[in-house]
Each structure stands twice: as structure tokens, then as C-alpha cells.
Amino acid sequence: GCALAELGKCLAPCTATVDHEAYDSLVARVRSAMSGAIDPVTNALQVRMRDLADESRFEDAARWRDRLAHFVQASVRTHRLMMLAQIEQLVAGKPTPAGGWEVHCISYGALTGAITIPNGVDPLPAINALISTADQISQPAPSQVAGLTEEAEAILQWLESDGVRLVRTSEPLALPIGCGGALLTQLGQVRNEIRAQEPVDYQWLTASARGKMVTRIA
Question: I need a surface site. Which of 87, 111, 134, 187 has the fewest CB within 10 A?
Fold first, then answer.
């Protein structure tokens, strides 16, 4: 027997007793969520949180809120990296305090070249020279960055910093609309509000404070 199946938490395909259509439907829903359409998952979790909060089970609701936050964070992080991993060439610049430009050349999520252009110098010839001398990187496996994940995340942070301008990109910078970015922002805002109101560490919030946070999200 399968304990998870008996608890209703698994279709138990290993027992060969599951209905094929039901299993295919579940796989399709999981594939859709992993591809960036997470609304069905997040909506179900928020309903669960709301029901628990209505029953004053704030600690249980907070645990589901934390699971929701981890899931959304993983979704957004994954799709941000996938977005960068598919771009063969991206060139962006950021103004320097001295009035020049700091220009980076990026390929498949890895830094392939960088240059600082002084103030008063025409940037286009320098950028063209940077592109022509940048490291050549082979396209990695699908959805994987060419270098370290930590490097790709640092590049994403730099691209999102104030003042950065795109010079050219071989593919658009775009995230799936349903991958959870808006909800992640909301979760962060509510968490910051609760932390500001409570004198204790977040991990030790009272049940009442956790309940406030749950109901704000739900």
C-alpha cells in the first residue's frame, strides 16, 4: 500500500490503479505551473490560508503562507534565470559617477566582456570593440545559464539597478506574466509591515501577528 495515497495526497501511479486521464490532467497542471502559470496553485493556497485564519488557526495559516512565499520565490527566481539564459547577446551600460559609462556584455547569463568609457568619449566605437572582442560562449543546455547561477543572479541585480540602459539584446527581456512577480512583491510588503510593527524576530511572531499577516495576503 501507499500511505500518501491512503491519505489522499498522491494518485499512486506506482500501483497502476490510477485513472490515466486523471493522472494526465494532474501532470498537465504541474507542467503549466512550472512553465510560469502559477495562479491555480497560489489561488488554492490563499483559499487554504483564508479558511485557516477564519478558524483562528493562525499558526497553521502562517505555515501555509511561508510555503506560498517559498513557492513564489522559486518560480520568480527560476524564470528570471531562464530569461537570461536564453539571450545570446545582451549589452547594457550604466553611468559612472565621473560621467562616463560602465558597459557589460553578457551571453547566456555569463559576463563575456566589460569596459569603462570615460566622459566625453563617443561610446559607440568602444561598445562595438567590446562586442567584437567579447568571449564566445557556446549555448548551454535549455534553461541553464552558461556560468555559475550566482554570477547570473548578480548580473540580474546589476541590470535592474538604477540608471542601467540596454544597448542591444538578441532576445527580449520578459518574464511570464503569471510567474508570481506581483504576488512576491505583495508578500514582501506585508512581511516588512509586520516586522516593523513587532519588536520580536519574525520567526517568533505571535499568533495574532501571524494572523494579521495571513489575512492581509489572503
Answer: 87
- Check whether residue 96 and residue 122 sit in a common domain: yes
Contact 101, 123 (CB under 8 A): yes
pLDDT digits (tens, 9 = 90+) for 47-83: 999 999 899 998 898 888 888 888 999 999 999 999 9
In the chain, the largest separation of any two C-alpha atoms, in whole Å, equals 75
- 102 class by beta-carbon count within 10 Å (0-12 exposed, 13-18 middle, 19+ buried): middle
pTM of the model: 0.74
State the total domains in the chain: 2
- Is 83 within 8 Å of 127 (Cβ atoms)? no
Phi-psi region of 122 (alpha: psi -120 to 50; beta: other; left: phi over 0): beta
CA 23 to chain centre: 28
Is 190 part of a structural domain of the chain?
A: yes
- Residue 138: count of CB within 10 angstroms of its CB: 7
- The boundaries of the domain holding residue 190 are 11-82+179-217
